[in-house]
Amino acid sequence: MAPLPRAVGVLAALAAMAAPPASAQQATEKLDSVVVTGSFSRSVQNSIDTKKNADAIVEVVTAEDIGKLPDVSIAESLARLPGVAAQRVDGRAQVLSIRGMAPKFGVTLLNGREMVSTGDDRSFEYDQFPSELVTSAAIYKTPDASLGTQGLAGTVNMTTLHPLDHGSRRVNLNARLDRNSYGELVPGSKAQGMRLSASYVDQFANRTIGVALGVAHLDSPNQKKYFNPWDFGKAGDISVDGAGNAYTFNGLETGVSSTQTRRDGVLAVLEFKPGNGLHSQLDLFSSRFSQRMNGRELVAYWANWSNGTTPTFTPLPDATQGGQVGNLTPFVTERKNDRDDRVRALGWNTELKLADWTGQLDLSSSHAKRAEHIGEAYVTGTTPITLDVRMPGDFHHFGTLSTAFDYGKASNFILSTPWWGGGAYASQAQVDDDMKSLRLSARRSLDWGPVSGFEGGLIHSRRSKTLDYVGTNYDLKSGTDYDGTTCMIWPVCGGPIPASVVQSPAQLSFVGLPGLVSFDVFDAINSGAYVASPNDPKSPTWNWGIKEKVTTSFAKFNLDFNAGVPVRGNVGVQAVSVRQTADGLYQDSTGALNPITDGTSYTDVLPSLNLIAELRPNTLLRFGAARTVARPNMADMRAGLTASVSQTDRTWSGDGGNPRLKPWRADAFDLSLEHYYGKGSYIAVAAFEKRILTGIVTQSVAYDFSGIPNPSGITPTSNIGTLTTPTNTSGGRIGGVELSGALAGARVSPLLEGFGLLASYSRTHSNLPGTDAHGAVTSTPLEGLSGTVYGLTAYYERAGFEFRVAQRYRSAFTAARHNAFRFVMDSIRPERITDLQLGYNFQDGALKGLGLLLQVNNLTDTPYVVTQTVDGITALKEFHKFGRQLLLGASYKF
Questions:
Q1: Pairing of strands 492-496, 331-354
Q2: Could you give the dihedral angle defined by the CA atoms of residues 64, 66, 67 and 68, in that order, rounded to the nearest 10 degrees?
Q3: Dihedral of CA 239/242/248/253: which sign?
Q4: Pairing of strands 413-416, 492-496
Q5: Reported pTM
Q6: CA angle (699 as vertex; 696, 705 as ends), nearest 5
Q7: For 125, phi and psi rounded to 5 degrees?
Q8: Tell me, what's the pLDDT at 186?
Q9: CA dist 626 to 160, 673, 731, 784, Å?
Q10: How far apart are CA 216 and CA 223, in angstroms?
């Protein structure tokens, strides 16, 4: 069934089943009085109540939602909400697109404070945040002037618990075994891991002091199989001989990777409420996140520019299906990626009530740091081979290979130098992101006609983020110059793979080969077989520092009046003043690097309005209007540039960042109609439109190069030249509709007590252009935009038994991704992810409080599929599968 009929049909059924006929009103009232006892049902009810009572359009998940659903990170739980989609990175939901807009258009808060990021931009990587330590998370789709920093697409606010909100001491323990269905693809990797968490909440001194402690440990194996055809097109256009003018590919890469992900999270909360109008809370969050990736990759290319023997290609009758490659140099890449991240956030919030006023002081500091070490080493065979290639012919399968050559035998290979000019390459990236913030505000109730309250204040933050990136080539310590026979790779080949680093072969049976030669990259580099050549010059694109000082003044008036029907809401305004400074490197025509600094300042005035009319009991009509902004990617704001004067026409040209870049700006309008059917049931339809006033694309603009060093000796005709750089442009529109609902089975019949259903569907459209990885306009859709997104969750919870199956779908979209040593923009096919959970909670007796559970994530092993389009023909570019994640565990609370 197509997504639209399926989702709309489910939502229509929700409405029909939740609204009983008039003759059944008495029975309905009886059902509404039933006490919800199941933990998941209770959390669904809490989420619905929060949505109903909010003065903005919000979507909410609560702790039981996150703790009970089979989710590794909070991103997967948030991705089930209406209009929200997750982007997978190596099988993990890592970042979110809200209402069809890329992660860069959103903002993530922790307890109302903006979070820093270990990534190369502002986007928060949710897989680093333990879901076990979150009490609730809300996505604000319309702004609230008092919330502080907010996004153009939406704002995610994750909140941790308040220990004094709990009536007594609580202790929760959880343990789960974690296994990937693919087992161990790379030698030395692990097929299984574990998830452990514990929390303690208590109150002291007559409930004036509350303490909460939480720890969460994750040790999870991630496995990947992939088959990636290379360039697609007419044979002559992609340098393939022997195929005439047929459409075909010019090579491929296929392999496996194993990543061991470890994360240790700690949360500590100290709350003080002596009862004299003073309320203070100190909270600390810390997360250490590490990834150890080992990859093994077979490379085969039959283009005539092959850096080895010149291959021959005999295509099948349909050249897109593959063919036979002869005189091929066997080539394997060994990969390694070690990454260590740390995120720390400290916040202290104090409120003091004086007469009619309540003042608030909030101090916070957050810091993120990333250290990443990426490496590759290359080996080639010593004799040419014949390789039969069968492309999959669709978007649902791996291709296959066959050859008499043994790719798993280490003695068949020698060290070589096919890429980068060396036999190995390694890069190191350091990211440091630091933010400190101060908030002063005051609020009070008012009785000024329609105005029921006021809140105003000031938020000041200082943020600095740096990216430092350096690469190193490793030459072979000894080798044989290219001779085309014993050494088939230009310019040099080395000796055999050091025996001390050789591992057993990696698994490659999924493409028809028994194994692939395997060794650890860094062990090989340190074996003595290589010698480090001078470091690559630092790139102005990958080495920069950004500093921001942001001061936000805000005022908000709460509204409560009658206009024929009860109306509540708020009207507010923010004045956001930004001062930004960028440091970077200028690279001249000789390659010399010089420091460069630039920046700008600006102020945005951002009004907002939220109105909620109660058309009849439990039926709400919401309207929102606001001006919103999204500050530029920090990489786009870099000061670094590369420039030179042309020898032919003596004009300046270059490319670089734009430290004077202004934010995305939009006027947003929202309308939502919601009806609530008692406990655990509602249905809503919403529409939104964002009119983009200012956007950002990369294009060539006139630029004054005065003051830029020119060592070339060529006198330019003018200091005004052309710079390719991110630039503010006029915008466009993005809009859509969203349907969502929930149904408690007891509303339909007492026989369905314990059953429930959640459903959402969104349809989004935009006339904004897409861009490539460098920000230049393309014909692809806007980054992050899936035209259709839906989610379905069915559950049963009664007498201790639990069953839950959840599916989320997003249609095709484009997304930026960091691929080894560079960013790429992927065109990704539709994804449908299904997760399952079974459990039993003991209700009484000696085992009361004990729960058992079985979880299966990615139940259908949904692939991640990237396409390429040439001459209107869409072909496969990447096909990745990650296996099913199986978790078996227990929880105990007392």
A1: unpaired
A2: 80
A3: negative
A4: antiparallel
A5: 0.92
A6: 110
A7: -95, 105
A8: 96
A9: 28, 18, 17, 22
A10: 22
